[in-house]
Amino acid sequence: MRLPRNVSPAAAERRALLFDALLGLLIGISAIIVAAGIGVVGFIALLGLLLVVLWYVIEGGLRRRQRRR
């Protein structure tokens, strides 16, 4: 199915405006999805970093405790 070729300038402007609006909506939704994805990955990475730091602190404390004996 093809769009008619002989359209008025006003109809062409409305089509262009509709296309621009839909494209803008698509870009906005994709930006929200990507930003939310980055936030989730960042949060999980922060939790992982805290676990690694906690592991090093516990390991260092155990080593100091064994050296004192």
Give an overview in words.
The structure is a single chain. The mean pLDDT is 87. It contains 1 helix and no strands. It has 69 residues and is mainly α.
Overall mean confidence score, pLDDT? 87
Helix-strand pattern, N to C?
H
Based on secondary structure, the structural category is mainly alpha
Approximate shape: rod-shaped
- Please give the share of residues in helix: over 70%
Beta-strand content bin: under 5%
User: What profile does the largest beta sheet have?
Assistant: none
Question: What is this entry, summarized?
Answer:
By secondary structure, this protein is mostly helical.
For this entry, give a set of tags.
mainly alpha, rod-shaped, 69 residues
Question: How do the helices and strands line up, and which of them pair or pack?
Answer:
Blueprint: H1 9-68
